[in-house]
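Running log. JK asked me to keep both predictions on one page so they can be read side by side. First protein, sequence followed by its tokens:
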Amino acid sequence: MEPRYEPQLTLSDAAPVNASDRIEGRKKTPLAALAFYYHSYPQLLSYCDFSVVFSHYLTMIQKELELNRVEIQVSRKVLVVGTGLISQGVIHELIEMGYEVISTYAEDRAPEQGHLSDRPSSMPIHTDGVEVLGPTELVRFGGDPGRFNVSFKIDGARLLEKDVGAVILATDCELDEDLDAWKIECAKRVSSVSRLITALDAKDNGLFLEKTAPLTCVFVCGFTHSSNPYSLRKAINASLGLVSEANARVIFLMEHLEVADYGMERLTHKARDAGILFVRLSGTRPEIKSIGQGLRVSYIDEILGDEVQITPDLVVFEEAYRPPKGASQIADVLGIHLDRRGFFQGDNVYNRPIFTNRAGIWVVGSANGPISLEEGLKEAKAAALEVSKLLGDGTRRVEECRAGIIRRRCSACLTCFRVCPHGAVSFNDRRPIFSALACKGCGICVAECPMGVIQLHDFNDDELKAQIPVSSSALNLVAFTCQNSAFEAWSYASMMGLPLPAGLKVIRVPCAGRVGVDLVLSAFKAGVDGVMVLACHHESCKSVSGSLTAEERIKGIKGLLEKIGLEDERLIFAGIGPGMAFDFVKTAQEMEKTVLSLGKRRTYG
């Protein structure tokens, strides 16, 4: 039988390589945990068998050492997309590190113009080492991290191609005054926060109606959109300016007081000390009507239950922060996810603060939501440091890609290209190429490949099937556990000596998305009485879509079980976090109880 994939090195061949160089990031966590428990809780040794847990981690180390290292050349050019001060901060950091920068933007604005803040005098605007393309449209994007190929459309027609090593999105979000939602006709007495700040800076008293008596001003925050700490900071600073410049009496009407940012509580206390009143309306929004040449604001006081009416001289609305222009089109071209609001950076805990689902592409500043200039510049520096890790001096020595393929049996169906959540698969000469820098080794492509010609070096089919217990008189349960979540929960439960089913066999997989139809049916064919596929929670899957893919696949397999005469209750999917040892035990015990009620089953096949 033709072998599907063979590792290029054995453990003995790789022994001279420094093991610490091969075990990075999360891979240190299990061993650190073992050392911690050995040192801190020696009494656990009296009733807890560490040998099983430890053997799993020794296998992990061995597989790490067996991977060969290859040297690849990468481009030292970085594409920075966007205008504004944070994009200038990115360019500044990259130039200081010695990288070449290609700067472009989708809107007809000079790169130094920004939406959110004024440029600090300490931030230089670089021209040396920066190729400015001007307003362009991204039309094609290919390659892999360190060797991307980007095609631009200039002046709506001419195509330009550039090779870059990395991409940083630093586009500014859009400010929407959102006045249409309130249907107000008296525009003279209405302003946005940004227009008020401009008027205060310019000493434009026309906005204040040139009143000699104290000005009454109402700030309206939220209600038609989600407020945020940054926009609230701007509004409070503007209100303090009104108090100082126009002796104004200020009332804030808001849904929530967003103070989850540095210095916000101090700022709100300062505003209260200045006489500014904050009114929270959780159930209703205020009513604002034009009365002749003026306005009337009314709302229900939630404590007294009475209606309050105000006739302000000025109503200031907090702007809504919308995704950058063209975000959807840019995301489609780059193959990155948007969040549910339409900003760059999909809803996943591992993306924060600057990462995307694709290696080599980062998002900084207001491209992923409203942010202060100070925080945006910190993200710019962090992104530049990530670029230096990826590109280095132009040469990278990396582990060979964990995914291998039998090319002569590949049908070029593009399934692996479509399902890879990391954009690690490209095509050359009608055959897939797996990027060593982009591939995370999740194995989703292995489980989805209809020809079965893709395998992972450290989680191939033969190794996983060999761990499936054979049928016996005792009850057999198999748990395919994601190594980033459920496997660590099992390790934790084992080290604490929690009661687990006697017939439970835990099989570690790189991601629940690696568990395909063949693996599950092989377990049942071997006589296993129940199978659990235990994954990350969908919002915290390191493989982005691995957990969701696994759950959908399990639903399909349940239908197959019914056709071959097995109860679908014998197969379950569950999300288990890495610290959820007790939940792991509960899930396993409930599965044992379910299988006992169904009874021992016969081997088929």
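And the second, directly underneath as requested:
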Amino acid sequence: MTTEAERAFEALRGGDTPANAACYVTLTDLYFKTKNMAKAWKMFEQAKADGQLNLTIYAQMVRNLTYEGCLDDACRLFHEMSAAGFADLGISSLLVAKLCDAKQRQEALKVLHDPRPRFSENAKSCPISNFMTLIRCAGSLGVLDVAIEVFELCHQHHQNVDVLMYNNLVDACVICKQAHKAEQIFKKMSQKGIRPDSITFNTMIRAYAQNGDLEGAFSLLKSMESSGVQPNVVTFNSLVHAAVSNNRADEAWAVLPMMTHMGVAPDSVTFSSLITGIKQDKTGKSLERGFECFEHLRNLGIQPDEVFFNSLMDTCVHFGRLNKAEEVFKMMREAAIAPTAVTYSILMKGHGWNRDLESAMRVKEGMEAAGVAPNEVVYGCLADTALKVGCNEVAEELVEEMEGRGIKSNVVTYSLKIKLYSRQRNLQRALDVLDEMEARNLKPSAVTFNSLMDAVARCREMHHVPRLLRLIKKHGVKPDLITFSTICKGYCQVNDLPKAFETFEILQQQGHKPDEILMNSLLDGCARVGDIDKATQLVEQMKRLKLKMSNVTFSILVKAYSAAKDVDKAFNVLEQAKDAGVEPGKVIYTCLIQACTSNHQLGRALETFESMAKQGILPDGATFGAVIAGCVQEGSNDIGMKLVRQAMNSKVPLTTKTYALLDKALRRADGPEACKELTAIRAKWPADDRVRVNQRREAGY
């Protein structure tokens, strides 16, 4: 059939009667139907050479290329046809929708921002559905001004704009986080005599919730009643979500009796949202409510879905109840609900919080055995855990495995890659990640830039900060407290205190309230350069700001006095801590011991060490290490060995550094024979280099 059509076409082209545009359209359409793309393109080029290109031929090519998934070619021809005066709103709406589906954001924006199709002559006769598609896409792409412009044009061309059109625009406002605009349009509907339906009210509940107006959201129930619109399960689910998102979980639970009163049965989504709200109870006592939701659903004869089980598992993990999460996982399987990559990633996250990389990797093995392929979220969870426990090589292997499987990184995994290169002190590779994201049209997040700032600080290359701040502005990302805290910390680590305090002033001017972590970083900077005056001023400022101070805060203050050679004032910090409601712990005492030893006061260091036991404060490896280092410094190796025996008897592991320091001192003083006992103790009680990290974690740092 194709061959006959081609012969007829060639006969026309070679005869007295030239082939018209309809002939090109017919044959091109035939080629597309038979999947002969090469001949379709050839026919298009022939039409162009014969001067037969028109709107119909262009539209046919772009439409078919779009449906075939050849979006790059479709975009190129779309812009060409618009430039040639053949702009078409229907083609524009189709192409934008398919680009959005394919997550080609930048290309979709280029097509959407082209005004020619909207103001073309054929736009006047386009069906409302094309305008609705453009509004939906504009909303999802975050360009509300375009959505409103399309709506106004539709109003000009179609007098019968109905509630569906208004619903699309209200939804676009909510997606673009312009709740006040949604309220304006909602009022305009009444003025125009457009009767809102349940979708309108449900969307407006989201708008009021976005504005933090929970009372306004709940008042819509009365408005629905007066308008004769019956609330449905989506209405009540929206109210539950509104309450939860505004940290008012109790009001979310109050929706359940309302549903009973209105004769609307809750569904799995209702309870999934309620379970999410349980996280707002810091005590974790509400966790049992989540399991009550499960029983409630069963009593209603409703089978909990995957989202419900995942929500309950995630809440268990949030409260550190991994054993409970594993129970839910078992319940999920018993209910014949197949766990997905999301389910497995929640379990991995739980093991990650426990810093248990081995168990997290076993979960990955289990999911692969079950036929569930790991995705970028799974690899992100595992890589994050590997980085937490210092297994940088494992993290790198996971990233390589992910990319080897053709799984593209998302914003989160890119941020983890930056963190990995930061740990490896490879700043250039970390910066290259940003270029890779830009090449893929992936917008970096605040987390991305914060990870890069951390890499710059770790690598002590603070000259990159101005460039990163310019990039943050270019990408429309707002620097947050973590951004500025990281910059302050970086400047403190290179002893550039003026720049650190300049950054501190900027963050306050931008409305950020300093937290304990930031103030501790600045305190540490003061301690490094021995600026006692600034350090004490910061402590007073923390009191004025009513910031919670911890053992870490006062331990840094001890370091500052130690650097200033004022050991007596360092010990006065004990009373300052108590006055602030902080009970001095091992981290402060360890710093006091270091203050004594660095100022050659070994006797006072030993007295401080002994006083810890009297107060019931158990020393750890870091504390023992500080005293032993002082003994080595003063040539008291015998006391150092005595402390090693005490640590072994107390089952307190020492660090590799402590063992090596004493070993070297003993060999230097008395020869290899003097190290026999130490070597035997080390063989029986190996080093553990996590003690310093553990001490800081216990102190809440």
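Observation for JK regarding the second prediction: Confidence is low (pLDDT under 50) at residues 691-701.
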